[in-house]
Write a structure and sequence with these properties.
alpha+beta; Phosphorylase Kinase, domain 1; 5-stranded antiparallel sheet
Length: 240
């Protein structure tokens, strides 16, 4: 697969075209950001670490029947993915109250929830990704009712698969976000998971100590960010 021109440069990844219009190459950089890009840094080995964690998790999801855009790992920092038309919303599942939810409702961080809470957010950095509901999404045309139902169903399926996987590794899956879309070769077909799953996009706590193993270490200046990312990889069995 030949890597061609840059198509999109995000906060931590760059997407390249290939000689096949149905596939893209996702390149994981060492960049890390927080607070909608207000805090930036480069962390050695971050790109390769996230690439390998994501490949491992996507493999587990695919094996369980969850359709994803991930095709295969190409090298330390590159993965081949299906070209997608993404929906402009983020799906968040919370198993434990933390982060923005704790601040929004005045609930103590670390409060265990009796069942997972699902939230939608509009994907818009300029607006700081506001919380939205089904009616906003449907009436404003960001997704239709069937797509909304699919996103909820698939996100909860992912939670049912990954929560026990992380628990077995001694890690609490606190919360995470996912994005969905349609593959270019089947634009009217069922939704496909078109996101990564790494410590950048979820909260992971040690089950015994509560130590943070995710990007909150960068947000909150706790240090040893990549060492903890690689600890996550080691515990779940992702090869580094």
């Amino acid at each position: 697969m030949e890597k061609r021109q840059e198509r999109y440069r995000g906060k931590a990844k760059t997407v390249y075209a290939t000689d096949d219009p149905q596939h893209l190459i996702m390149h994981y950089r060492d960049d890390v950001s927080a607070f909608d890009g207000a805090k930036l840094a480069k962390l050695d080995r971050k790109g390769e670490t996230n690439n390998r964690i994501n490949a491992y998790v996507m493999g587990k999801l695919s094996a369980a029947g969850v359709p994803t855009h991930f095709v295969r790992l190409l090298n330390e920092r590159d993965s081949l993915v299906k070209a997608m038309k993404m929906l402009p919303v983020e799906c968040v599942v919370r198993n434990v109250c933390a982060g923005s939810m704790a601040k929004r409702y005045g609930i103590e961080e670390g409060t265990r929830l009796p069942e997972p809470i699902f939230e939608f957010f509009l994907k818009n950095d300029a607006l700081h990704d506001p919380l939205v509901n089904d009616d906003h999404i449907r009436i404003l045309g960001w997704a239709n009712a069937d797509e909304i139902a699919q996103m909820k169903k698939m996100t909860h399926e992912v939670n049912a698969l990954l929560k026990p996987m992380f628990e077995t590794a001694g890690i609490v899956l606190v919360d995470y976000k996912l994005e969905f879309g349609h593959t270019l070769d089947n634009p009217q077909g069922p939704l496909v998971l078109g996101d990564e799953f790494t410590p950048d996009g979820c909260r992971l706590w040690d089950v015994k100590t509560g130590e943070k193993l995710d990007k909150d270490r960068f947000r909150r200046d706790l240090g040893d960010v990549i060492e903890h990312y690689r600890e996550v990889a080691r515990r779940i069995g992702a090869p580094l």
